């Protein structure tokens, strides 16, 4: 019994760490987007995609904040929902970026990394709920 409780506690800590890593990455990407919009002359379509992604990242980081709160209160159903919403925000950004001419800017790569970090966090939460 104690081993099971310890395993759950370790998984919960791993879930918390993985959500925070994703959140930090999302915050850094949000800063990158803002800096790019403020300092670079972008083609109108590229600028619009960056603005859309900026909105997606604001939403995603809020979702990750919610995921942390729900995880701490052991509400794993809501944690899963918040993480899925953050992943959806990353996918929405990615869909716009795929239409972007050139893709030479760093954002597509950052977005892939962010989405994967969110997926990793979700996997840990799903494993936590089944253990």
Automatic annotation (TrEMBL):
GO molecular function: enzyme inhibitor activity
Keyword Disulfide bond in annotation: yes
Pectinesterase inhibitor domain boundaries: 1-124
SMART domains cross-referenced by the UniProt entry: PMEI
Keywords from the named record: Disulfide bond, Signal
Domain of life: Eukaryota
Similarity remark: Belongs to the PMEI family.
Name the record gives this protein: Pectinesterase inhibitor domain-containing protein
Protein's organism: Gossypium barbadense
Lineage: Eukaryota, Viridiplantae, Streptophyta, Embryophyta, Tracheophyta
């Amino acid at each position: 019994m104690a081993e099971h409780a310890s395993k759950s506690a370790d998984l919960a800590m791993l879930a918390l760490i993985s959500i925070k890593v994703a959140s930090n990455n999302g915050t850094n990407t949000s800063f990158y987007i803002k800096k790019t919009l403020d300092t670079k002359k972008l083609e109108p379509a590229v600028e619009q995609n960056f603005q859309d992604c900026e909105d997606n990242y604001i939403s995603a980081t809020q979702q990750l904040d919610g995921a942390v709160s729900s995880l701490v209160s052991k509400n794993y159903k809501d944690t899963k929902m918040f993480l899925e919403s953050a992943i959806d925000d990353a996918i929405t950004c990615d869909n716009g970026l795929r239409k972007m001419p050139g893709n030479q800017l760093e954002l597509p790569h950052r977005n892939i990394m962010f989405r994967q970090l969110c997926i990793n966090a979700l996997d840990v939460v799903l494993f936590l709920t089944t253990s």
